[in-house]
Each structure stands twice: as C-alpha cells, then as structure tokens.
Amino acid sequence: MFQIRQGSPQDFVRALDIHADFQCLRCGHCCKESDPIAITRRDAQRMASHLGLAPEQFESDYTTPMPNDDRGRSLKTLPCIFYDEQKGCKVYPARPMVCRMFPAIALFFSGLLDNNHCPGMKARAGISSGGRADLLGKEGLDELKRVVEAVQAQGIPVMLDRYDDGSVELKMAHYFV
C-alpha cells in the first residue's frame, strides 16, 4: 500500500473533493504533457487484458522502468501511446490508476491548481487559474468520510484509517507497485 506523504490531510481532502465533482472532457492535455504515466502491476494486467495481450507482453511492449524508482514502471512514450486525437483514450475503461486519479493526484502533489490547460478544471465552479482550491466550507471527520465515500464510489481505492489515539490517516491502495 502506498501512503501519500506530501501535503496535509486537508489538502488531500480538498483534492478528493474536487476529484469527486470533476468531469473529464477528454481533451487529452494530461495525456500529452504530464509527467511519465505511472503503471502499477494491476494497471498492466487490466490494460493487457483490455488489449488482448499477456501482461508480460504488455510490460515489454509498452512500459519502461520509472525514472528514479527501480520498483515502478511507466508508459514508454509521452504523449501517451494510447491517446488518439480523434477518439480519445483507446484504453479508457482500463486506464491506469494515475489517470483515474486525475486531477486529485496532481492537485495533491503540486498543492496548486493549474487549470490553464484543462477545460474540465476550468469548468469547475469556484476555482481560479493557478489558485489554491479552498472548497471545504467546513472541516471534520463527517466531511472527510463523505469525500472518501464519493471517491470510493468511482472505483478509486482510497481508505480512511482511524487509530486509538483519535488520529486519522488517508491512504490510497495500489498506487505504485
């Protein structure tokens, strides 16, 4: 399990809150100009199945070791080899977790909301270009649970752990291999 280590829990909740309402317009910007697209073992299996390939063949043909991380892998090319200007994502039902988590993952790790190139973010009311998202009118465990449940309903493996001392930890399962 990968534990998010950057940003605060409040930043993570804000990012998840934005993600829960985000509507991808399939412009492809994030497919063409993002960081290397990380691929988990589950991503590789899901995408291989979608393409009718053995996971080993998919890994060999389409992935490479992640820069600065000998355990992880990423797609070999950027722009993403699976993005088609006319049809959009050719593997959308089987897309990688990092793609499923956009924009939450980008918002959380950068801490800033740069929506200059994302029409889906521009369409999100109350968010200004380059500004910090401040969408939670109230804080607290109830709000945190609501956001986590909404994101889980989209099939994104986020969980909330409570400890005996009353602290709360947010985790994403199976993000990196």
What does this structure look like?
The chain has 177 residues and is an alpha+beta fold. The chain has one domain (9-172). It has eight helices and seven strands. The strands form three sheets. The chain has a three-stranded antiparallel beta sheet. The protein has a two-stranded antiparallel ribbon with strand order 4-5. A hairpin with a 2-residue loop joins β2 (63-66) and β3. α1 packs across α8 (141-153). The longest helix is centred in the N-terminal third of the chain and has 13 residues, at 9-21.
Number of helices: 8
Q: Termini distance?
A: 9 Å
Query: Which structural category fits the helices and strands?
Result: alpha+beta
Return the string of H and E elements: HHEHHEEEEHHHHEE
> Could you give a short account of the major beta sheet?
3 strands, antiparallel
The total strand number stands at 7
What's the arrangement of strands in the largest beta sheet?
1-3-2
The amount of helix comes to 25-40%
Q: What value does the average pLDDT take?
A: 68
**Morphology call:** globular
How many domains in all? 1
Unreliably modeled segments: 1-6, 111-115, 125-140, 173-177
Radius of gyration: 17 Å
- The proportion of strand residues reads 15-25%
Q: Which features does this protein show?
A:
alpha+beta; 7 strands; disordered N terminus; globular; three-stranded antiparallel sheet; 177 residues
Sequence-ordered SSE layout with sheet pairings:
Elements: H1 9-21, H2 29-33, E1 38-39, H3 41-51, H4 55-62, E2 63-66, E3 69-75, E4 83-84, E5 88-89, H5 97-100, H6 104-110, H7 119-122, H8 141-153, E6 158-162, E7 168-172
Helix pairs in contact: 1-6, 1-8, 3-4
